[in-house]
Amino acid sequence: MRWITAVMIIALSHIGSTACSQITLKEKKASLEKILADIEKQSGYVFLYEPDSVRMPPLTITLTNATLQETLEKLFKGQPVEFAVVDNHILLKNKPAQSLPMPAAILIHGRVVDSIGQPLPGVTVFNRHERMTTETDTTGAYTLKATKGDLLQFSFVGYENREIKVDDQPKIDVLLQVYPTSPEQVVVIGYGTSKKKDLTGAISTINTQDMDEVPYNTFDNALAGKAAGMNVTKTDGTPGGMVRIRVRGTSSLLAGNDPLYVVDGIPIQVRSNFIDPGYSVPSASAALVGSGNSLLTGAALPASFINSLNSLGALNPDDIESITVLKDASSTAIYGSKASNGVVIITTKTGRINTPSQVTLDYYPTVTSPYRMPRLLNTPQYKELLIEAAQNGISDEVAAGYPFFDPAFTAILDTPGYFGIANTHWLKQVTRTTVSNNVNLSVSGGGQTSKYFTSLSYNSTPGVLDGTDFQRISGKLGLETQITPKFKLVTNLLLGFINQDIGDGAYMEAQLARPDWTPRDATGNYLNFPNQGYDYTFSALNPVGLLNAINNGKTLSLLGSLSGIYAISKDLQFRSSVSLNMQNYNQRSYLPSYINIEVLGQNITNPGGVGSEGNSRFANWFLENSLTYTKQFNELHSGNIVIGQSYETTKYSYFSTKASGYPNDNFLNGLSSADSLISATGDDPTSPQAYLLSFYARANYSYLDKYLFTFTGRADGSSRFGPNNKFGYFPSGAIAWRISRENFLKNAHWINDLKIRASYGLTGNQNIGDQLYRTLYSPSTYAGGSALIPTQFWKPGDQMGKHKRNGYRAGLVGIYRQAKCHF
Q1: Position 712 pLDDT exceeds 90
Q2: Which of 56, 76, 247, 490 has a CA 20 to 30 Å removed from the CA of 349?
């Protein structure tokens, strides 16, 4: 319309032509308005256009004696503007947009599954560009028309939304993750999985994202306060050291009280790799509980090793996907004679199908320094206190009419030079500020028939106490491949190496050492604290000298499994797996010559340095076969049945040697430098020491998705049980009622899920040592010759069986919109 109006204006106007046939331009990055003004001035023509509509970037043009036609053609060549000359006017307008061919619509299809591969019916699939919607059918399949570049949104109640951009691939398979607090969340249980809403036992899930917020060396240190009914305590402050975990208290006085850990389906019993060298250092804390004038000693070296060595420390916390804690007998009975102390199930990360490779690199440093250390007496305060104590002691003896004074009192008051001139802050001498480093690299992804996850990590954590250190190198390789439509192969490999430097009790000695003494004597050697006896000091060892003792433990851990899964039918699945839990451990210790040692409870002088080296090898093999049947019969009935068999062998071998008489405490302190071999012990059996044969079954039934029933049973045959009690039987049962599904609570939108449940079960503990029902003999020497001596007695007829634990539970569990409560 505007174009027609402009033509009418031109037709009505009678402007004479003052055109000039020659135009000269020389402009550099000039605006369109300036160039048009120059052309109007030289040609006498007038441009008509809408400035808000016709726009061009700054132009550079050079012309000499060009005609108007030549000028206009060169000016607008390649520009989105066209021109028309009418009489003495030049009309400008934008070129009409070229219509591009519409991309052809294609039929997108695929399946939507949950985190365990189960189809999700009723998922809404929405094309945000075309505003088209469809839903998945009972098999999780869908079809929808879309064009390249469209955005598909997948949404389902209780699951996180996911958006995928359409490319050239017509098939798009989607995996949806549930919200952590949703009753649809899938949790890992014994030999399978279950939705949270279908649980009948006492089970807690731990959000591993919370573990990422605080840098923990080992995952067990991160469990504190994460699950109700689970008590986590740290035995000492050693970096990477073990923690004590108790699920619903202590259950046994004779057997172990640690829970069973199941890592990617491999059961792990917590054990200490410590090899007792036969000597230790005097314990300062033992002296505090002594009576009278005696200086009692304790085993500081074994305690340090036992508290510091962590058989689970090789597992990288960054590799963990989920942690489930089974707490009551109903949920743990499927593990039978291993489950009386609860079960902690750990699942590591895997890749995802139809996902491009993702590379993740994490690094974080941590600065640690001593905080709020105990306040100790300085030398003037210590001297004043001892003099006052000696004077009070003599006064008491005078009042009591004793004819002689205690030599300790008179030594303090009358001995010249009894007090030193130093003022040593021993805690500052044995502590430090450190910087820890943690690096984690992972690569994950997957195609249509396989998925993978691999990682490599390094952690270095020096302890605040000088002489302590923790280093770990760990890696994971997980591969899952769909060989055929019915057969799948799953491989998991977890490898870890730990190098730990362990303390000898220097921190306790530092709190008790005399402040008027120095770490070194006048010759520059470490001061060998004499046995003070009555001299009001409990420290028998030089704290700084203790830092030079060698206590090192190296552990190489391997957790590996190979599983084959065959889908017999859509509802029936067979799984067979072989697994290995192996640890190789090397231990080295050396106590310098200026540190007294303890042997068989006696504090003796160090014979020129004492050292030991030992190594052990632990191998736990598993062979498991199981059948799983899962069926949604109709809207009323659904069920799941698991039956299986497990066979386990355990083999342990070790070697240890001890020697004394080293020429130098700092350099020549290897075992080959010693001049006197004290002892050498070891054992390398040709066959495993322990066997466990098990059969288990579990049945779950749901009616109307609100009445739930679970029945579990397991039979364990253990070589650790006596001849008359070779098998133990562990049944359990549980029922639950989802009240939130009833009509009278359907309108209670503030409730996600509310459930009443009750359970009963029987679990056991076979962690009682090998061959305890036999009388055993060990080789020894007697009267200068070889001999066998009895080391374990057992009376015929005594019954050695499993430790059993009954469990009853009734409770109310609710998941609400804003909070989660357990009663």
Answers
A1: yes
A2: 247
